[in-house]
Structure formats: structure tokens, C-alpha cells
Amino acid sequence: MNIFKTAKGFWTSIVLAVVFGIVMQFLITGEIINFFYVNTLYFIGINIILAASLHLIIGITGQFSIGHAGFLAVGAYASAIITMKLELPFGLGLVAGGVAAAIAGLIIGIPTLRLKGDYLAIATLGFGEIVRIVFLNIEYVGGASGMTVTQLTTWPWLFGSILLTLLVIRNFTNSTHGRACISVRENEIAADAMGINTTYYKVIAFVIGSFFAGVAGALYAHNFFIIQPTNFGFLKSFDILIFVVLGGLGSMSGAVLAAILLTIVSTFLQSFPELRMIIYSLVLVLMMIYRPQGLMGTKELTSFFKIGKSSKGGVTHDKNTVA
Amino acid sequence: MEIMQQLVNGVSLGSIYALIALGYTMVYGIVKLINFAHGDVFMVGAFIGFYSITILDLGFFPSLIISMTACAIMGVLIERIAYKPLRNATRIAALITAIGVSLLIEYGMIYARGAQPEAYPSDIIPVTSLDFLGVKVSSQSLLILGTSVVLMILLQFIVHKTKIGKAMRAVSHDMDAARLMGINVNNTISATFAIGSALAGAAGVAFGMYYTKIEPLMGIIPGLKAFVAAVLGGIGIIPGAMVGGLLLGVIESLVSAAGFSLWRDGVAFVVLILILIFRPAGLLGKNVREKV
Asked: How far is the alpha carbon of B225 from chain A, nearest alpha carbon, in Å?
């Protein structure tokens, strides 16, 4: 019975999402919302994918990675090579971006995920910088001056990718694998003692997270007209990190909400970039001092609607369960 | 001789890294926190030195001392305001705060004075170069090297021969036991931040002299590389930071000499990843078994 109910909620949300996507498509093609807002919408979409993918690595598996812009860069360049240099269709570029980033994630994940906490953070930061320097030195992709890319990102591609990302990450989280990842986050040594192959799950989460970051990179590259190594510096990683931290480490809807909110805020502060960074950094410091679990903690948006029901049905929700 | 010349350059650069790395390693040794804001204290130190030289019209040594004092105060303030409330929080929370503080200093600086770079006055000390067995050693390199060596000896003296140094060693060994023995842990941690930040300030002035260009975001890359140096030598170990800094400076100079100057910034991170994989305790570190 319970399974049926969750399945119903699942299909309802998918139908609602598809309806929303179609309505937005009509609004965009009918030019009812103006170009500025459409552009903001695209940025929000790309940031949602990035936030959700980093959420899987930091929020669910507890691996503190601060080199996410590196995967974004790999995805962006790989897809741009497919569409611009090899002149293949955009859909293929999207997949290639994701796969290239996933391979990068695997290569960097296997050695570095043996490290913990601070060391992992620094190693991933170093990886992000190495990626940037590598692209800076490859003449084939334009070096420092970057690579021009035609705009191919459209709402159906973007919306499809968002939907796919959120579905995969949500279902992964609720699966056996997701539970194993959560146990690694809660206590790695205990998880290991219970027979969970912690390295395997850490690498899996890392690879899936980097795959979606690569997809976001492909969408990002084809929305921007030009990609340069400077777009993928440490600050970009930080931008993504703050979505996850602000939303709540362990809450996907929190990360998505934070991505939407902060993208809108930064669009309005576009003409004052220093002020934007000052606000971001203050939010980060104050947040850690006064509410270290983030806005949503590990709760999901849906759990706010279930409070009455769960007390009746006697289903006790563990505070760490990601619904 | 080309190699010798690059070695000399590498040692000058390395001594700057070593000065910054000392601050990282001391703070990490005592509160187990990667103080990301350390690179920005270094930047602020460079700017304070610059303003004391150009506006107050002071010489090199008075500017160095002003910059070190100001940075020490700044380090203590950062610790008291941002890190102290988080002393018992999770490591990730502390790390995120450190990143936040770092960005706050960088962009606060840009907001206050703009992002444009400044040129360090080069006539502050007489520029001559000594010819030593065919290797040109500039007076600036000598001054930087001399300053670093003096400061490192001073640091060794403070850590090993004074009361506060003994307290620092005790707290880094076991904070709770040190508190039970009547050591004022808060003051000791503040003193550690003060000394580390003062060294970063000195490194800032030295960096300005050596590269003659300073800007508000200049702290990021040297800061990260100094951290790599600290890890290379063994984080938490003071002689390790010196060895690591000098070694990293020499490696970078040799890579530049081999004709890969554009890859120079990447080499430090490759070194980092290699050292973390093969010898995570660092060159001078001991392997510590993890306790549950």
C-alpha cells in the first residue's frame, strides 16, 4: 500500500513537471516572457543541475569536493569539441560532455577518495586548478582566448536534463546504493565494519555527480557563445558549493531551492560583482556559525507535507533519512 | 650555470612559500583547520607594506615590521570572530567558514580600493647583483632569503625556548590535557594565529619586492601553493614547512627552466596529489594509525 502511495506521488510530480515544461516552452516560443528572463531561466536550470550533482557528492556521500568546476569544464570542452570541431548533433555533445566528465571523475576519484575531509577538499581543489591549466595550454581548444560555441541550448534540452538529473539522483538516493552512501556519510568506519564497500560507493557517487556536472557543462558551453578557462576557476566551484551548503547538506530540494534563489539574487547584483561576493561570503560564515546544517538540514521539501500522516501511520522517520 | 641560476631563483621563491607555509602548518597543528584565509592575510600584508613605503615614506625594515604587526592583529581578529565559535563544530563547517572568510577579505579589499594592481617601488633597497661563480644573485633575493632565515630562526626560538612556545606545543599535542594543566588555550591559539599571520605579512612584503606587482586576488595561488608546501613537508611540523617551501620553489623554477613555464602553476597541484597518495603524512611526518 505504502509503495503504491509513493509511486502515485512520484508519477504525479513527473506529470506536473512535464506540464510545467510544456507551458514554459509555449511561453518562450510565444515570446510572452522577455529575453532577459529566459536567459535567467537558463542559468537557473544549469545551476540546478550543478547543485543537484554536487549534492550527491557532498550532501549524500559526505565527500567534501571543492573542484566541481573542473568537471564542468571537462563537460563544456568535450561537448564543444563534438559540436564545433566534429560538427555532430548537440544531443551527442550533451552525452559526450557527461561521459568525459564521468571518466575524469573516475580517474581523479579512485586515488583521491582514499583521502578524508580536509585532504580530499584540497586534492579536489588541486584537480580543478589542474584542469583549468590543462585547457589553458591546449591550443586545439583555443588556449587562453577560449573557444567560440554557437548557442544550441534550448528549453526542451535543458528541461529534459534537469528532470533526468533530479530523477536519477532522487532514485539513486532512495536505492540500496544511496543508503550505503548515506551510511558512509554518517560514519565511514562503522559502514565499513557493516560490510559496505565504502571506496566503491564513494567512487560511484563521485562518478554520477561528475557525469551530471559534465552535462551541465555542455549546456553551459552552448548557452554562452564562448568558453574560456577563466570561467572555470576556483570561484565557480565556490558558487556551486554555496548552493549545497545554503540549501542544507543532505537535502536535494534545499540545494535546488538555494540554486534558484541565489541565481536570481546574483542576476540582480550583476552590476556589483564585489558586493555579490561579499554577500555570498558573509552568508557562508554566518550560516556556519548560527545554522551549520543549512536552511533545510537533511529534510526534503515533501517531508513538510507529510507531518500529519506519518504520526498517524506510525511510520517513524529517522532524522537522517532522505525521503 | 643555467640550472644554478634557476636554483637560486627557486630558493628565493621557496623561502616566500616557506614563510606562508609556516602559518598554515602552525594553525593546522594546533586547531586542525586549513586556514584558507591565510593567503589573504599575506595579500593584506603586501598592501600594508606597500602603503607604508609609498605613503608613510618608510624604509624596508620599518614597513616590514608595520606589516607584520598589522597582520598579527588581523589574524587574531579572524580567529576570535570567525573560527572560535566553531571550535567544536564539524571539520567541514570550519573549512567552509575559512573559505568564506577568505572570499570576504578578497572582495572586501576590492570593494574598498578597487581591483587594479599596484607596482611595488623597486628603489627601496639598492639594486645590485653579485656575481658568484657565474651565478647572478640580486640584492633583493639576498634580502628576502636573509629575512626569511632570520624569521625562521626567531620562530624556532619562540617555539622551543619560550613559555608561550611550550604552551603552543602542549595545546597542539592534546588540547584538553593542556587546559587541565592550567594553560590558557584560547590565548595560546590566538598567539599561534598572531605569529603565523605575522610571518604571512612578512612574506607579503617580500613577495611585493620580488615580483613588484600586487593585487587583491594575489593571495589565492601563493596561498594554495604554500599549503601544498606545508603538506609536502608534513602538515603540523614546523621544519617540514620550511623544507617543503624551499623544495616547492626549486621544483617550480626547474619546471620553468625546462621550458614549461605555463604549466608551472599546475606542477604544485600534481605534487600535492602525488604526495597525498603516496606519503600522506609528508616528507618529515610519521604515519599515525587511525583510532576509532
From this structure: 10
- Per-residue pLDDT reduced to its tens digit, B105-119: 999 999 888 888 888
* Pair A298, A250: CB distance under 8 Å: yes
For the stretch A95-152, pLDDT in tens is 999 999 999 999 888 888 777 777 788 888 888 888 888 888 887 877 777 788 888 7
Nearest to B82 by CA among B68, B70, B69, B94: B94
* Residue with the three cell numbers 546574483: A266
Q: Using the beta-carbon criterion (under 8 Å), do B103 and A280 form an inter-chain contact?
A: yes
Q: What is the pTM of this model?
A: 0.84
Q: Cβ distance A83 to A222 under 8 Å?
A: yes
Q: Which residues of A touch B226 (CB under 8 A)?
A: none
> Cβ(A73)–Cβ(A217) under 8 Å?
yes
| Helix (H) / strand (E) containing A99 | helix A90-112
In chain A, what residues touch B32 (CB-CB under 8 Å)? Answer: 118
- Total number of domains in chain B: 1
CB contact under 8 A, B107 and A288: no
* CATH code where residue A172 lies: 1.10.3470.10
Complex ipTM:
0.79
A179, part of any domain:
yes
Q: Estimate to the nearest angstrom the gap between the alpha carbon of B186 and the chain centroid.
A: 22
